[in-house]
Amino acid sequence: MMNLDELKINLKTFLDEDELKFNEPMKNHTSFKVGGPCDIMVIPKSKDNLIKSLELIKKYNVPYFIMGKGSNLIVKDGGFRGVILKLTGLDYILVRENKIIAGGGASLSNTAREALLNSLKGMEFASGIPGTVGGAVAMNAGAYGGEIKDIIEWAECVDENLNLIKLTREELNLSYRHSRVQDENLVVVEACFNLEKGNYDEIRGCMEELNRRRLEKQPLNYPSAGSTFKRPPGYFAGKLIEDAGLKGYRFGGAMVSEKHAGFVINYDNATAKDVLEVIKHVQKTVYEKFGVTLETEVKIIGED
């Protein structure tokens, strides 16, 4: 049986005030801007504090979920019973010649910017991806023909037994929106990217062009979690949704973007229920019309 009160007391013994929050509204921590409160939020600023927190969470048998910036997450309106471990406290970026080592909680776009500032090429595709390094490794994030698996050298992770392990690119088993991190419930605390020396102006030009295309095609002025659905084999989710006549479909404050049908957006103070109803309707309609099952790319947690 989970014991939240004792867990709270024990976490307070070693975590700083800014590393620990109680009854924290999750809408303040997700790019969709929806979600009820979590019982406990831990934002560890060191690997040691992360591991010590996990030890206690397991000792008291409390459910937990690992998150980064919440750019690929929907928390239901009833919130999350247990602990949300938010890794954004592990936020550092180090440059070693043509390699960049970044904390699991570092912003992926900031890491790509650091690559630019050091005239290192290979991370241009990541400059507009809104998540963290840890989340990007876990789901092999990609855009515009580039993926994390193209540039990663290794990732340091905490395994289920709370050991720190270092996995090479091959050992990470990276594939489309998938990795060993997901299979084995690992926590990415650090990653090393192997880049090439390049020309600053060319790298900047490439990043500006990709970000211009993003701005042109994606509804970046509304809260969302980016592409809501995974690409089904042989199809494009956005095209299927558009061909099903669902652009602009609304439920409550959520809708299918009229700019890009692959995005469900929070256009008017949506609840998580509104967003999930739109997702459900899209999945049902696309399956009925085309026989294609759309899987969500976004993670959904919590209770109604």
Automatic annotation (TrEMBL):
Catalytic activity: UDP-N-acetyl-alpha-D-muramate + NADP(+) = UDP-N-acetyl-3-O-(1-carboxyvinyl)-alpha-D-glucosamine + NADPH + H(+)
Name of the coding gene: murB
GO cellular component: cytosol
Catalytic site: 177, 227, 297
Organism: Thermobrachium celere DSM 8682
Name by which UniProt lists this protein: UDP-N-acetylenolpyruvoylglucosamine reductase
MF (Gene Ontology): FAD binding; UDP-N-acetylmuramate dehydrogenase activity
GO BP terms, alphabetized: cell division; cell wall organization; peptidoglycan biosynthetic process; regulation of cell shape
Function: Cell wall formation.
Catalytic EC class: oxidoreductase
Pfam families found in the cross-reference section: FAD_binding_4, MurB_C
Required cofactor(s): FAD
EC number: 1.3.1.98
Entry's localization field: Cytoplasm
